[in-house]
Design brief:
The chain is of the alpha/beta class. It has one domain: Vaccinia Virus protein VP39 (Rossmann fold). The chain contains eight helices and seven strands; from the N terminus they run H-H-E-H-E-H-E-E-H-E-H-H-H-E-E. It has a seven-stranded mixed β-sheet with strand order 3-2-1-4-5-7-6, with helices on both faces. Helix 3 links the parallel strand 1 and strand 2. Bound molecules: S-adenosylmethionine.
């Protein structure tokens, strides 16, 4: 699949204005609850949370929740200027720092960050494994990497859901967003992505340890909690 920076950045720049609306429509607002649960989990486990990066932050639905943790700073990073511009309009907080950058090169020192979250972003990373090394570099030892994503799943062949996700969503999504391919890409990128089990195996090869997997929806939308175990 074409996941070059130009393609991905262009696609999100193009759909930015309709992104939140379509997310809430397609998930019937369940996505809001899934993001909220990440914050609850961080609180419950008392993870250090002074410095947080929300990577692939987009229009900021996850950063909005993370701000409730009252971190010293929340860095919200994304390649798409238009997505960040909408976040700037949506959220006003002196703790929030917006950054336009690629997840391949994070402008942070080694071992400096407590938590990195990625909401529905990592599936789009062209060089995912290199990004995992970069995330590992900037996280403190025992720092947390928390990923919510749509993973491919064999049971996912449930006819009704496949019809909805493969046939209805691309047509409605492309139509409403005004994009020719963004919502067809969404379906294909999930079908071609790792299963949650394979994703955990790959991530653990980059010096992370899995702590918890939470199945949010049909085994497709999962939240995966990792801890950095050492330097690469
Ligand atoms: C589906 S949106 C998710 C937005 C938000 N995290 C949420 O939960 O709604 C994916 C975001 O990832 C960003 N993105 C994709 N590839 C990226 C990369 N290599 N580096 C940084 N951001 C990236 C896109 O620009 C887009 O805003």
């Amino acid at each position: 699949m074409d996941k070059t920076r130009k393609k991905i950045q262009g696609m999100f720049d193009e759909i930015a204005g309709r992104y939140d609306f379509l997310n809430h429509l397609f998930t019937m607002k369940m996505d809001l609850r899934w993001r909220r649960e990440i914050v609850k989990e961080i609180e419950m486990n008392n993870y250090p949370k002074d410095l947080i990066i929300d990577l692939a932050t987009g229009t900021g639905d996850l950063s909005l929740e993370l701000l409730k943790l009252k971190p010293e700073k929340l860095f919200a990073a994304d390649i798409s200027y238009n997505m960040l511009a909408l976040q700037k309009k949506k959220i006003s907080s002196e703790k929030l720092v917006l950054l336009q950058c690629d997840s391949l090169h994070l402008p942070f020192a080694d071992n400096s960050i407590d938590i990195i979250t990625i909401g529905f972003g990592i599936r789009n990373f062209e060089f995912m494994e290199k990004c995992l090394d970069e995330i590992n570099r900037v996280l403190k030892k025992n720092g947390r990497l928390i990923i919510i994503e749509m993973f491919s799943n064999n049971d996912f062949k449930t006819k009704l859901f496949n019809f909805y996700f493969g046939k209805v969503m691309p047509v409605v999504g492309n139509l409403i967003s005004g994009s020719k391919y963004a919502y067809s890409y969404l379906h294909k990128s999930v079908a071609n992505f790792y299963s949650v089990k394979d994703f955990v195996n790959v991530t653990e090869k980059h010096n992370f340890k899995i702590e918890k997997v939470k199945n949010n929806f049909l085994g497709v939308v999962n939240t995966v909690y990792f801890r950095k175990i050492s330097h690469h």
